């Protein structure tokens, strides 16, 4: 099913649910008015939730890409982290490095697939799992969200800083680092742009929360920002962010995709919009091609 098959209010309720602004019981109670006939609120939730059997644009077995889980040191975070390292198959080579940052539920199959897509495009990609200190992504997004919400947020962000340093310094990195992140990962992509200004050359936040205005002048790299027109929750922070970016003379480009919801790039849920996802990804790869070659 597509987003157009659901009432926008129901899609907004689901967005509140997956971002912790509404618990499961609250979602089911408020979604019940959309349950008609034999359709239940529980069934609606299942219909809106990810189906990871679809997350295989670049399957694990794809011979064009090699991938493995590797650990990295994180002395200022949880001590040690782990993530999926994906590279183009073939002889070792220096190439642009890209950190791929997951949503608020750990390194799920969709983000693993995105990392392999980045590798297939010719980069050394690294997708860390913030949930590694808690045993790693638990297999379901609901459990993943719960685990991630319990982590020390400051230490978790330090883990991503350490992961960025790790892939930047990898033997198959040319020293030019990009970041792409989705939802919570979009916030991290914005954050790393100012936390690691001498490392991050290109950052691509997808519908990500904005950093404090006071930190924006620290950004030295370029930004490509993707927003969903119907994502009023995240978009509320854009005007102030844009003002700060302009004042700091940061190199940025922004795109608002009409008629789509938060999560439009995630091809495992009904909120996925093929046209917006394809166009945004084309722009993302062109952007990396410009800054990481």
Explain how this protein is built.
The chain is of the alpha/beta class. The chain has two domains: 3-48, no CATH class; 62-292, Alpha/Beta hydrolase fold, catalytic domain (Rossmann fold, 3-Layer(aba) Sandwich), CATH 3.40.50.1820. It has helices spanning 8-18, 24-31, 41-48, 109-120, 141-150, 153-168, 184-195, 232-235, 238-247, 274-292, and strands spanning 65-74, 79-88, 95-101, 124-128, 173-182, 200-206, 222-228, 252-257. The chain has an eight-stranded mixed sheet with strand order 1-2-4-3-5-6-7-8, sandwiched between helices. A hairpin with a 4-residue loop joins strand 1 and strand 2. The termini are far apart.
List keywords for this structure.
globular, alpha/beta, 21% strand
Q: What composes the largest sheet?
A: 8 strands, mixed
For this structure, the quaternary state is single chain
Distance between the termini: 39 Å
Structural class: alpha/beta
Strand line-up across the major sheet = 1-2-4-3-5-6-7-8
The ordered string of helix (H) and strand (E) elements is: HHHEEEHEHHEHEEHHEH
Give me the CATH superfamily of the largest domain: Alpha/Beta hydrolase fold, catalytic domain
- CATH fold name of the largest domain: Rossmann fold
Write down how many β-strands occur, each being a DSSP E stretch of 2 or more residues: 8
Shape: globular
